[in-house]
Amino acid sequence: xxxxxxEPCNPSLAMEKREWVGGARVGWTTEKFRNREDRETExxxxxxxxxxxxxxxxxxxxxxxxTTQLNLNASQRKRLLSDHEARAALQxxxxxxxxxxVGTEVFRRFTPASLEEIEPKRKAKEDExxxxxxxxxxxxxxxxxxxxxxxxxxxxxIYGDMPLELLSIPLEDLDPFYQSQKTFMVLSKGNTIxxxxxxxxxxxxxxxxxxxxxxxxxxxxxxxxxFILLTVLTNCGFMxxxxxxxxxxxxxxxxxxxxxxxxxxxxxxxxxKGRFTFIRDPWNWLDILIILTSSVGMIIYIPALxxxxxxxxxxxxxxxxxxTVEGFIQSVKKLAGVIVLTTFCLIIMAMLGLQLFMGNxxxxxxxxxxxxxxxxxxxSYNYTDSQTGIVTSPxxxxxxxxxxxxxxxxxxxxxxxxxxxxxxxxxxxxxxYGYTSYDSFWxxxxxxxxxxxxxxxxxxxxxxxxxxxxxxxxxFVLVFFPPCFILLSIIxxxxxxxxxxxxxxxxxxxxxxxxxxxxxxxxxxRREEEEEEESRRAGISEEQDSPAAQTQKPEPVSVAGGEExxxxxxxxxxxxxxxxxxxxxxxxxxxxxxxxxLSPFFDLGIFICIILNIAFMAAEHYPMTANMVEVxxxxxxxxxxxxxxxxxxxxxxxxxxxxFKVSRNIFDFLLVIFSLLDLGLTGSEGLSVLGATCxxxxxxxERWWPDxxxxxxxxxxSIGNLSLVLxxxxxxxxxxGTQLFQEDNKNLLFNTTQGDMGPRWHMDDFFNSFLxxxxxxxxxxxxxxxxxxxxxxxxxxxxxxxxxxxIGRLLILSLxxxxxxxxxxxxxxxxxxxxxxxxxxxxxxxxRTWIRSLRGNSNQTDVGPKDAEDRKDYLALTPITCDDxxxxxxxxxxxxVPVADPDVILQIPGKGKAEPARPDAENxxxxxxEDCCCDGCYRCxxxxxxxxxxxxxxxWSRFRRACFLIVQHKVFEVxxxxxILLSCVVLVFEDIYLEYRxxxxxxxxxxxxxxxxxxxxxxxxxxxxxxxxxxxxNFWCWLDFLILDVSLICLMANxxxxxxxxxxxxxxxRTLRTPARFKGMKVVLRAMLLNLPSMFRALLxxxxxxxxxxxxxxxxxxGKLTHCYNETxxxxxxxNEVHNKTQCFELIMANFTEVxxxxxxxxxxxxxxxxxxxxxxxTSAGWLDILYSVxxxxxxxxxxxxxxxxxxxxxxxxxxxxxxxxxxNLFIRVFIDSLHQQRNQLGKKHVFMTEEQQKYSxxxxxxxxxxxxxxxxxxxxxxxACFFDLVTAPWFEVVMVMVICVNMLLLMVETDxxxxxTEAVLHWLHFAILIIFLIEFILKIIALRKHYFSSCLNxxxxxxxxxxxxxxxxxxxxxxxFIGPSVFLVLxxxxxIRILLNIRWxxxxxxxxxxxxxxxxxxxxxxxxxxxxxxxxxxxxxxxxAHVREALIDNMFNFETFGNSMISMILVSTTSSWEGFLxxxxxxxxxxxPIIGDCGSPTxxxxxxxxxxxxxxxxxxxxxxxxxLESFNSRDLEGDELLxxxxxxxxxxxxxxxxPEASQVMQYSELSNFYDTLQDPLRIPKPNTxxxxxxxxxxxxxDKVRCLDVLHAVMEQVFCGSEQKDALKARLEEKxxxxxxxxxxxxxxxxxxxxxxxxxxxxxxxxxxxxxxxxDRDETSVGGASDVLGSSVQ
Length: 1690
What we know:
Layout: H1 11-16, H2 28-47, H3 56-61, H4 74-82, H5 84-89, H6 112-134, E1 183-187, E2 193-197, H7 210-220, H8 222-238, H9 244-269, H10 285-299, H11 307-317, H12 319-334, H13 336-357, E3 363-367, H14 388-392, E4 422-426, H15 441-453, H16 457-468, H17 473-545, H18 548-552, H19 555-566, H20 573-579, H21 584-597, H22 600-618, H23 626-659, H24 663-681, H25 687-695, H26 706-717, H27 721-750, H28 766-777, H29 782-791, H30 794-821, H31 823-828, H32 840-855, H33 864-874, E5 877-880, H34 889-892, E6 903-906, H35 935-940, H36 952-968, H37 970-986, H38 998-1031, H39 1035-1055, H40 1079-1117, E7 1122-1126, E8 1131-1132, H41 1141-1149, E9 1155-1159, H42 1167-1179, H43 1183-1192, H44 1209-1241, H45 1251-1266, H46 1278-1288, H47 1290-1308, H48 1316-1344, H49 1352-1377, H50 1381-1386, H51 1392-1396, H52 1403-1414, H53 1416-1440, H54 1458-1469, H55 1475-1481, H56 1498-1529, H57 1541-1554, E10 1561-1563, H58 1567-1573, H59 1585-1590, E11 1594-1595, E12 1600-1602, H60 1603-1614, H61 1621-1635, E13 1646-1647, H62 1648-1675, H63 1678-1689
Antiparallel strand pairs: 1-2, 3-4, 5-6, 7-8, 7-9, 10-12, 11-13
């Protein structure tokens, strides 16, 4: 192989040797790269964004930034402005460079002279820019506005406070950038910077006009801005008033105010001419919109026309809100790529749904006998036109009682069945008002959007399964759910990354400002010390010259001392009283009580009292006996007295002044005052009223509970700009919804089918609109959308609800992530510092010390923490493998089980210190097993110690060694895994119908017997091979032992004739053997176990908050959710029919057997039911029933009235906010902290991946980041080359993608009820497109040859084309037995990804998808664990609730079989409507028949579903966090932007053709052909002369170029602007150093650009010379012309 030899490619040497001869340009490359590095460093320092992206955990660990107020005192500021030496020392600081020269005023009025000085500066700057453009220089050094002096920001600290006389006065601009432009600045109160155009405003008012100056002063006055803000808020308030006359007058007044404001703005800043004029500010456009809409609204009423700009103007009136909205808009722009990807995926999913389930939801159960029509078996399922009345009329459908829609059905074997007397037929209406269907593309898209946002999706799945069959769940689980999860996780990841970037930029800016401030202060301090030293020396010399000054020096001291003696105290009497020092008795009492009050045991007593108070409040329930009520009242009085005494003691011990300095003491004081007022105003009957005040005492625990303190601080910190933006947007949506749909809802209220009650959800007034908006933002938007489309315009409803949904959800997500990631929030959210004495840790520490001192063990105090750590390590779950020796101190103390997979060891306490680690079995000599028993057993029973003595001992040793080899063998492990999986599969057949299948029952019994024996044999082998000591020191072996014990007990019970039916659910323990054999699940389990302590802390805080709301719910609704119920009509009596419980019992006594006094299933009668109701409110759609019962509640034991207590819905709203949103934020925060700690302990490794998976992930990352694009070689034949150029041309791919899109459009227009003519036209259009794809295939197979099948997209096209051709003749057959052909056509959309990902703004999508692919191993581990949980709970549900059939548990969705149980648990998985399964399980007599066995178990049902939901949420948190973290880690990957070794080899091979002698150089004249010969992506096709010139390649003597210079130049062209360019360059030079050790001694004398410049300069000189020569020849006489010419030539 020919090797290209060149010089060593040390970057520094290469840069230094590129010099121009003659000193024209020396070290050009070095200076070029140095300038670029300086610019990049300066950019990173200013923006806080470095080329290397910070990982999420790096950001998480460094996110807390303590910010302080930066300010210079007067002396420092004066010195900075007047000291030349200090200014010289700080000349490199960016802020100091903005100061004017020393000796000049900082703030100068803007005068006509100032305006005249701007003009020459502006002209000079324009000339400089023109000169730079003429020289084609880069614009890196162009001046930019100073970020610290931007309009709207506060004046930097170096300028100090603004003189009052210069406030709101035009001043010369401090920013050097604007000093050459016609602008001036004005500072308002608060030193806020404003800029105005110096041109005449509206061509009339100069900057010095009195009217314009007055307008500026008014506009910037704080009172005027406050007036405008109050005006806008008042205008928003008047929007809620529905009195036409008042609204018209108010609107007229507001319009006048807005017009006056606009006039002031026009007078102060001008209209449009200039940079800082009225129209140039987009926020001022709102003023124009307000005026226009208000004017139009007075003439023509258009709903919501003027509401939106008025509410949006609130943001313009507040600088903080304005900045927040601008930041939110910028973050939304970052979502452009994700929005395109989401839309693309939704379109594909909608088209799949359209092709798979079109028309299925029209199948309904129809009565077979109607008006004498007899159904015959020969009648088709589709009625003819004469029978259309039966199909379309709703009275012909079969309805399930209590359901709005007719019962769906299907004609497949696994679809829903119709009752007797009905038949499944295709009708004309779809469910849910006709809006749930797959009959057209748009309805299918709406259904897919429901799946994406997980709103009422369970109902969609049940409807689809009932009509299309149970097999359709496969499409949902494998096709629809994964894209939805990917899209949601990517959206969250993008918003989180943008939030992190903003926080990093803010932190970097704050850090830079603090560093600069510290440097300035340090320089000023040194200068001050130097001056003080000089003045001190000068003062000493003066004192020596004038001794009289020394005699006068002590006089003022003696006078001051005399005054102090005559005036012992300067404090006023009021201050003395407030401090409690008014008399000696008070001071003595204060000294006596202060140590007691400040004692930690005093706080401990108060803490115990608060806990007891909460416990007794939780004991309240309904109904209560009179004695119980009396006890609770007495306890309330006792606790009130205790807390009152506490307040009095603290007031006396601390004094009023010190007591009220602490905000917590003020809170305690207010609680005591309110409690005393309650005592005076209410009697014993007001227990529920007293509880509201008493409940607030629970919040006092935050001072001792750091996690609760963190949560409360989070709530307090969230009250910021982003929260206000969210609140105002909710207000805007509510008002706009009321104005848009008020008339339609009024018509609905009068024409409702619910009698006089009307619909629950409407927008007739503001509060109902607010409740509906809150419901939409909480995730339930589809049902309100249906109801809106039923009464109003479909397009208007869809636009409104989608706007509310998207903007509201993004705002909520931004607020959540802002609280989670914000550095400012984390600085404020720090737990109470250790300096505070009143906290639980201090109390516990001193209590332990006191207890130890009582026991006489105070000398052991110092070793307490160490003992705690020892115990913690001793009980830790530690992973250990037999393949590798244990690592780490905790693992070294444990010995592993000699099996192939890693195990988790649980050290048994009580044996003292752990023994040192023994070598693993594989590392032992001869694989000798360890001792069977512990040393104590050998000492107690010496016969056990056989050893290896001859005889029995030797035989025993050989037998153990043989068992040891069997246990360690891979085949044995695979066999056990197979048996475990087989035993789990057997569980599937143990359904409710097993007793009717005796043969299957016998087979399962035998199989269970075999499994038990196999596992028993495994245990015996491990006992013999490993010994009891090692076996029972392993957690998983203990688990196997316990599971086997359960199986043996069941087996013995069957042999003895006892029934094991109650123990069937214990068979689910078999599945717990699985994680021990799969490393991935074991890693996830280990991480979850290590997360448990942190999760428990967060869960404890959440339970406390829920307990708070539970007790509050008891006080508000206990006994109020009962009602009188008619079981026959299944309706609740109206309040005008039955008023209370007494009247209901009167009806029962009158032999009305169908009447019952019932309670709501989910109520607030005690703490337990309150917790269950809150759990349903937080996790299920069933919270609406709870909301309805709360809104209808009246009094205790009274009949509910429809929407009589509407404002009680605020209780559930506040619970959503505080009990769900903030606690969930705390939960995620604690979870990430725990993952961060685990990651640090594992050495920055992935927590949810095994070692092999991490290596695979790293390999995939390198593969995707460095894999070159496979280039198909161009054929040598001219004909084939023409075909190749055709199919590889970019426009050809674009054309084919357009054809694909046309094909997809044809699929979109298909509907279920399309005419035959439309179907024929679509058929021929599909045929024409098929011909086009066939032609494409022929062209590509000819041009690309065998390389055609090297692309996955080409293979996909081939499969789809082949399927389409076969479909021409066998369409009906394939549709019946296989998937329809249209589904395959949808797969062609995969080719659009090729175009989509090549777009520049789509690179972010590629990185996010790559991050998701990198997380696939971890997702697989978590997914397997989730499937194991799903499988286990499905079997437990089948064993426990198989006989329950009611509500959602019907003939399709039940626990009778394992398949149905799996389907039911999948429905429960997203916590959408799991209360529908819980309600039947909670059924008790008389609502069920115990003889039949259809009753449930409330306790078992609550534990079953609650634990499953908790595990599901925990696993889903792991999944989302994994994807998001991998998305952060994938930000550095540039995909296909890096060169590979194949590209480098291709460059060598091409260079070899032009340099056969390997001289490292070639002629410059051959460079054009060389670049044209290269292959993509390095190829530069002809004509390329201009590009070669601009590449500025160094030239050697003889017009030659070097190999490395050429490669560097083409790399600069291909990867221009890439952040990875420098790293790639270093890698290529390293390759050259290794492959090409020699070098060329010649140095460059020129470059291509320089050569071109010389040629152009020479041509210019020649033309000038010729022109001058011609002029001289004309002016000179004829006689002397030849002599002059000859001398000039010489």
